[in-house]
Structures are given as structure tokens and as C-alpha cells.
């Protein structure tokens, strides 16, 4: 008896509205999921926001803003695809791609948001004009002196207070930036764009928090890369992204982890793994691996065990001929 005959004769065929069955099942599953979410919920870690970070770490916030202003911040000196910096250039692939998303950190992260804020607080106009009319050398002196001063800064009465010095308009500008951040309006100023297409582009909002905020926050929860953090749960007791185990494992290889082009290496190795799987049917020898492993025989062992004696295990009758199922 062939497999085809076995299927036809042993199962009763009944009419069925498959679409109705599918939609009914979908409705039941959606209902169960929504009900479970309402009853149990899922605790979520509070998101990292500009308002939250500036409120919790006012001095660190001003230090981050000053690094964006003087060009020493992570994004300010990142390199392609944002600018001509060299701080994060990993490989020729990055430089070949070029500047796809141009960012001027001083203008986009600090000065433009403050200019927008002048409509609410006109007092910001004077320090902005003073900074704009200063020479590059003068700005550099102010920034160098204020960088040192902020290491001794203290937060008092809504402002960061530093030892007296010749800092030009920087204390006023950065305290205005701090007030803008704590008000919750900074994020809107960073993503504001007149273009309809890019009106909801959150790029600047996310990149503004690069550096200390996004590096120190995960480290407190063992979510950093050295701890295989991407597969850990943000909330204890809930599963993490276990499906990211293989790419995370690649990042732990010493020659990848210690390379200046770790991202490029990890992505390239991951691509080769994918390519090997995608081309499995056409790679000589490699395409025979499933047959050699015989996993299918374990899965179908009950089927093979119940086959008639004249059809040996591993063979099925197809149209009068016998073919090896492996």
C-alpha cells in the first residue's frame, strides 16, 4: 500500500470553510492575548529620556552638551555616516559609504534647539549672539576652561554652579540647555523638521543620548556587550532576546572583541553563516549533511516502523516505483 493510498482511505474528508476557520482562530488568539495582557501585564523598564537624564544627572548632562558643542562628543567626532570625524571609523566599508546622514553636533544638538527656545525665553538671544560672534580661538578657550570647571560643578536651585572663571556665555547657554531638557521640550526641538517626509525622524533625539547616557545605563543592569547583555532581560524574571545568542557569541571571540572593526567583523561572519545556510542545496558535500545526520529518520521513525515489509524503512512507494526517502 502506498503512502498516497494510506492517506486517502484512512481519513474521512469533510467540507470545511478554511477562511472562516482561520479568522475564528485568529480572533480567539487575539482575545486571549489581550485578556492576558490586561490581567497580568508586563513590567517594563522606564525608557531613557532627555528629561529623565537631565533631571537625574544635571552636571553630567551639561558635560555631554559641552562635548557636543566643542566637537569632542561621540557623535561630534564619530565619522561616517554622520560627519568627517575619525572617532568611530572601523573599516574602509564605513568610509566608502560616506556621509549619508550629515550631523553637525554643535548646531543640531545645542544651538538650533536653543534658537527655537528663544520664542519662549527671549533672554537666550544675547548669549547665543555672543557665542556666534566669537572667534573659533575664543570659543575653544571658553570650552577648555569650562570643561575643567564642570568637573567641580554642583547643582543648586535649578542651575549648575561652577568656580568663577572666564567662560564667556557658556554657563548661561548650558544652563538654558539644562532647563530645556528638564522641561521635556528638548526632544521635540531635536526632531523638529519642516520636511513632511522627515518630520517624524527621531535620529537626532537618539544620537544626542549616545555616549555616557546610553553606555552607563545598560552597564548597571548587566546589559552591556561584555556581559552578553543583548540576550539578558531588562526586567528580571522575564526572558531576554535568546535568539540573539549566536551574534552575541561572535562578539565574544577575542579577535572580534579586541578589533577596532568589531562590528564589521561580526556582521561579516554572521553574513557568511547565513550564506552557507542559504546556499546549502548547491554546496557539494555540505548539501548531503542532512542525509548523513539522519535526523529525519528519528522524526519519522514511527512512520518507518509501521511500513509494510515489502517497503523497507527509508523508502516510500511513488507511482509504482520506489524511492529512497532520504
Secondary structure elements and pairings:
Layout (H helix, E strand, L loop, with lengths): L2 H8 L7 H22 L10 H7 L1 H13 L21 H6 L7 H13 L7 H9 L2 H15 L3 E3 L2 E3 L8 H14 L2 H6 L11 H6 L3 H8 L25 H8 L1 H4 L4 H17 L10 H5 L1 H5 L1 H5 L9 E4 L2 E4 L2
Antiparallel strand pairs: 1-2, 3-4
Helix pairs in contact: 3-4, 3-9, 4-6, 4-8, 4-9, 6-9, 13-15
Query: Looking at the structure, what is the overall shape?
Result: elongated
Summing up helix and strand content along with how strands pair, one would put the structural category as mainly alpha
Kindly report how far apart the N and C termini lie.
19 Å
Helix count, DSSP H or I runs of 4 or more residues? 18
Whole-number mean pLDDT: 84
Strand runs, count: 4
Q: What is the helical fraction, as a range of percent? A: 40-55%
Enumerate the spans where pLDDT stays under 50 for 5 or more consecutive residues.
Answer: 316-323
Sheet with the most strands: spatial strand order: 1-2
What multimeric state do the chains show? single chain
H/E topology pattern: HHHHHHHHEEHHHHHHHHHHEE
Beta strand %: under 5%
Radius of gyration: 31 Å
Biggest pleated-sheet summary: 2 strands, antiparallel
Amino acid at each position: 500500500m502506498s503512502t498516497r493510498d494510506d492517506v486517502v482511505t484512512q481519513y474521512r474528508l469533510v467540507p470545511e470553510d478554511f477562511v472562516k476557520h482561520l479568522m475564528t482562530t485568529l480572533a480567539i488568539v487575539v482575545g486571549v492575548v489581550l485578556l492576558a495582557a490586561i490581567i497580568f501585564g508586563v513590567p517594563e523598564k522606564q525608557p531613557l529620556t532627555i528629561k529623565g537624564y537631565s533631571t537625574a544627572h544635571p552636571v553630567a548632562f551639561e558635560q555631554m552638551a559641552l562635548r557636543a558643542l566643542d566637537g569632542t562628543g561621540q557623535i561630534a567626532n564619530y565619522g561616517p555616516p554622520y560627519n568627517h570625524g575619525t572617532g568611530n571609523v572601523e573599516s574602509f566599508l564605513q568610509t566608502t559609504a560616506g556621509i549619508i546622514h550629515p550631523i553637525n553636533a554643535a548646531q543640531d544638538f545645542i544651538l538650533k534647539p536653543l534658537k527655537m527656545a528663544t520664542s519662549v525665553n527671549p533672554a537666550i538671544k544675547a548669549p547665543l549672539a555672543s557665542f556666534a560672534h566669537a572667534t573659533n580661538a575664543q570659543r575653544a578657550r571658553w570650552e577648555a576652561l569650562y570643561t575643567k570647571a564642570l568637573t567641580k560643578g554642583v547643582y543648586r536651585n535649578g542651575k549648575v554652579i561652577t568656580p568663577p572663571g572666564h567662560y564667556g556665555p557658556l554657563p548661561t547657554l548650558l544652563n538654558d540647555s539644562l532647563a530645556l531638557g528638564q522641561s521635556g521640550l528638548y526632544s521635540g526641538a531635536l526632531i523638529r523638521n519642516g520636511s513632511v517626509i522627515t518630520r517624524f525622524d527621531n535620529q537626532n533625539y537618539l544620537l544626542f543620548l549616545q555616549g555616557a547616557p546610553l553606555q552607563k545605563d545598560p552597564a548597571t543592569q548587566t546589559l552591556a556587550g561584555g556581559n552578553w547583555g543583548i540576550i539578558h532581560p531588562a526586567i528580571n524574571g522575564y526572558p531576554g532576546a535568546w535568539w540573539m545568542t549566536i551574534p552575541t557569541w561572535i562578539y565574544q571571540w577575542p579577535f572580534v572583541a579586541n578589533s577596532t572593526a568589531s562590528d564589521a567583523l561580526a556582521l561579516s561572519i554572521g553574513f557568511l553563516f547565513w550564506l552557507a545556510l542559504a546556499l546549502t542545496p548547491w554546496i557539494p558535500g555540505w548539501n548531503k549533511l542532512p542525509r548523513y545526520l539522519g535526523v529525519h529518520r528519528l522524526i519519522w521513525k514511527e512512520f518507518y516502523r509501521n511500513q509494510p515489509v515489502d517497503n523497507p524503512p527509508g523508502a516510500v512507494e511513488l507511482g509504482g516505483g520506489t524511492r529512497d526517502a532520504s
